[in-house]
Write a structure and sequence with these properties.
By secondary structure, this protein is α/β, with parallel strands linked by helices. It has 2 domains: about 210 residues, Aminopeptidase, CATH 3.40.630; about 300 residues, no CATH class. It is built from 19 helices and 18 strands.
């Protein structure tokens, strides 16, 4: 479709709708892990079971409060450095079963994480009465200062990790990586960096450790708190589960064991001890809901399944259900990824409107219809309800054809059916035959502009990866269909039909199928999978 034509009309075409799903799972293949479960009646007992699974002997143990998590969030690097399991106990004293585990390990030293508000003086007395030399205590006035003290004990490792000290999930998701690499973890508030954290970051920078890994999005660690940090890498998703999946991807080169630990994202204690064990075994860690694997977790595990064949569930069925176990094993199929989604697929042009014509005489309308049909098939296989604006070489316009009536008809179909996404497919064209590449458009004038922009970003990135054409980026344009639809909508210019090389690709069935897969993957990514 020529750019001149778009400009003359002051509008033009079509919108792309998007989806739900599971990234890199065009086939929505089931997982195939061998699973085991480590659990106890209480979180204290689960931590003991984790210790028994990973340590036959330990000179040192780390003790943390079983009911109050912040002090223990940063313990994994110290655990790895000392080869010490993390055990949990009540504030008022050492649990008898925990004491039995300390004796089994033959520990001669205990390090308490937190002040007496977290672990009382009685904990020290209990340990001394059991023959443990006077316990060491790492603590500060709050969790931020305690994290600083632990970081000082771990020492300089070339980088530092910064996470929220107000919410636990992000620190847990990075715990295995932090432990394995012995990278200190510091805590911050969402919009204000505590003085203790500032001081320790400054100390690390003086030693040349300028690389800071921030885990979590703007809502938990805002960019305003990072002012002055010279080298920041943020790992974040739309929620805790997607962030954990992003960490999983990030850590794969360092955590190479064919095993994954599966922990709850709904509460912290079981996962605290598991992070230390995962670090010890160089294993990855992923986060789940109680009754279902989140899409982001399922997606990353579907890729990991090629190299990782074992999944260890941490916690009993009250924490992580047998439903999740079955999904990991493949005995319970994944839910229809796009169930409940209504998606309009809009192949551009059709009928009397050929669209742009390539140098060898090919028609844009034929290319867009082929991609649209392939995309509809993929979406339906994932459980979506798909509405095609056209499925043959016709225009959806009612009555006498005009370009405006055609565009209005496409928009009306989507709006009348209250679709969730609108996906418009086109080929680009320009007077210069060397013009090339892929572009995805959204309209800032639409009522769903923000969501449309996010959808466009995700589709563009995944489509370019899949088909390999030049990335022309995401652009804002007031094209009629994406401006006037009420749902998130995009218009995709797959490639330039006016470019002889891309014209051949655009007419190739294999390339058309790849285009559909790339769009599908972008939709899945948009939906958090």
């Amino acid at each position: 479709m020529s750019h001149l034509k778009w400009k003359v009309m002051g509008m033009l075409l079509f919108v792309f709708c998007f989806l739900l799903g599971l990234q890199n799972t065009a086939q929505a293949s089931q997982l195939n892990f061998t699973t085991t479960r480590i659990s106890g009646v209480r979180q204290i007992d689960t931590a003991i079971q984790v210790s028994q699974a990973g340590w036959q002997h330990a000179d040192t143990v780390l003790l943390a409060n079983c009911d109050n998590f912040p002090d223990a969030l940063v313990a994994a690097p110290l655990s790895h450095e000392l080869d010490a399991p993390i055990l949990l106990t009540q504030k008022q004293g050492v649990d008898p079963y925990v004491m039995d585990e300390i004796k089994r390990l033959g520990a001669k030293q205990a390090i308490l994480l937190g002040g007496t508000a977290a672990l009382s003086a009685q904990v020290e007395t209990d340990l001394e009465n059991a023959g443990i030399s006077k316990p060491d205590r790492i603590w500060g006035q709050d969790q931020y200062e305690t994290a600083q003290k632990v970081a000082e004990r771990v020492g300089s490792k070339g980088q530092v990790i910064l996470v929220s000290g107000e919410q636990f999930p992000d620190a847990l998701s990075i715990s295995a990586y932090a432990g394995k690499t012995e990278t200190p973890i510091l805590l911050t508030k969402a919009n204000t960096m505590p003085e203790a954290t500032k001081e320790e970051l400054a100390a690390f920078q003086q030693k040349g450790d300028t690389h800071t890994i921030v885990v979590g999005g703007e809502a938990v660690v805002s960019s305003s708190t990072l002012t002055g940090l010279p080298d920041v890498q943020r790992i974040a998703g739309q929620d805790r589960y997607e962030t954990a999946a992003e960490v999983y991807d990030f850590a794969q080169d360092d955590l190479t064991a064919p095993k994954t630990y599966v922990v709850t994202g709904e509460n912290f204690p079981d996962a605290l001890a598991a992070g230390a064990l995962a670090a010890k075994e160089s294993a990855e860690l992923i986060m789940t809901q109680k009754d279902a694997l989140p899409g982001a977790a399922y997606s990353v595990l579907s890729k990991a399944d090629e190299s990782s064949n074992s999944a260890v569930i941490i916690g009993g069925t009250a924490v992580i259900s047998d439903q999740v176990k079955g999904m990991l094993e493949g005995t319970i199929p994944p839910p229809s990824l796009l169930a409940g989604m209504k998606i309009v697929v809009d192949p551009g042009h059709g009928g009397p409107d050929t669209g742009a014509i390539g140098p060898s005489g090919t028609y844009e309308k034929n290319n867009t219809l082929a991609v649209g049909l392939d995309l509809a098939s993929v979406l339906r296989s994932a459980g979506a309800q798909v509405i095609m604006t056209r499925s043959t070489d016709v225009s959806p316009a009612v009555g006498q054809y005009s370009e405006l009536s055609d565009l209005q008809a496409r928009t009306k179909i989507a709006n009348d059916d209250n679709a969730d996404l609108f996906i418009c497919i086109h080929n680009d064209s320009f007077s210069n035959p060397s013009s090339n590449g892929t572009t995805t458009y959204y309209s800032s004038a639409s009522s769903a502009a923000g969501q449309s922009k996010t959808l466009a970003d995700n589709i563009q990135s995944e489509l370019v990866k899949e088909i390999g054409l030049y990335d022309r980026g995401v652009k804002d344009a007031p094209f009629y269909v994406i401006k006037n639809t009420k749902m998130p909508a995009v218009l995709i210019e797959v490639g330039f039909i006016s470019n002889p090389t891309e014209e051949k690709l655009l007419g190739s069935p294999d390339f058309q199928q790849k285009t559909a897969q790339g769009i599908y993957k972008g939709i899945l990514k948009y939906k958090g999978f």
